[in-house]
Amino acid sequence: MPEIYEAPAPSYTVSSWALFWARYLLIVPLLTDPLKWLVTRLAGTAVGRMILGAQNIQAAPMSEHQVADWLQGNGLAGMQYTVTTDDHATLDTLEIRPQALDNVMQRPYIINFLGSAQHYQDNLYFPLLDMIRDDARQQHCTVIAFNYRNVVGSTKAPSSFEDLVTDGIAQVQRLLTQGVPPANIVLNGVSLGAGIATLVAAHFHSHDIPVRLFSDRGFSSLARTIAGWIQIGVVNDMLNNQIQQVRNDDGITGYTRPFGKKLLGWLALPFLKAALYLTGWDIDVSSAYHSIPSTHKALLRIQSSVQRRQENPPPVDDCIIPEAAQLEPSIGDLVGNMQTMNPQKQHDAHFKMRGYLRNKENPSQTGIQFYHHALQRFFQPPPAPALETSPLLQMDQVCST
Length: 401
Hints:
- The protein is of the alpha/beta class.
- It has 13 helices and 10 strands.
- A 10-stranded mixed β-sheet has the order 1-2-3-5-4-6-7-8-9-10, sandwiched between helices.
- Helix 4 links the parallel strand 4 and strand 5.
- Helix 5 packs across helix 6.
- The termini are far apart.
């Protein structure tokens, strides 16, 4: 029987509450907010099914026997949890750790935030379970995977992006309640999960709880992402669920934007933002990302080199998160600008595992090596502060010489 954890309601700072009430009392939303409430209630869940495609996947949750068989002989222990959010969604959660790890206060934790069409039990098309197991074994840490609400074993359909952020907050809060230091918690997000993880990390940083963030192929906003699809010409591929078949000989690259399509995308952007706002799915990931200190985050994105882009045919970068919709790093951020190993045999790089990516600034470094480098940076102890030398001691040293 999985253990059950009931997460408390997220807390908010005085400034965030002041901003919340200022929006209601000082700005025009007296008209827009009732409309947003109505549209979100009518269409928010339907839009959520398109954005979080994993809700449409039929699969069985893992049993305790399956978990035990999968971990057998790896020196790992697995535990299943049901995490209940403050709005009564239940989240199917799996935690894996080396059997030798006992001290909750000392061991690192990695919480995985999956992409739009992923659930953690899926080990056929994308070996998520193997990646989770490898992280626990190689990094000697506790790794957590969970399914968002209404995805394989989890309940209650999301009606807004904020619902998915609430899921992530509940996962972090469970660890904090156990006494895990924030410095030992890394939120590892991919694609849609990178956006969710960024909002969750920013939430805790606003409460002076400095968790760490690894953003892999994240986006600046959903509206910019959809506008980017218009600009690079993949709208039909997205609607027909054929984006994984996009190839470099189709003339689609993820960064090439003909003037006409570029203009059309920018013209569509305000309408996309309005539609997503009214349905509860417009979210500003970029602002949340830049609110997190550079020492507490790392960014991996797909951006091939200028030299590679001049090849014929040119490489396909990221068509799910086009270049125009990607997060821009802050000064001092740890950034890995990745490209695929072999552009001549390439589909959309968004679906490549980290091991098949190379850092364009450091070609000997793969995407998985960059990820491990970020983890080492997050978990290494801070340097000891320099001892201040008193003026009297300095004078004694001068006299002794």
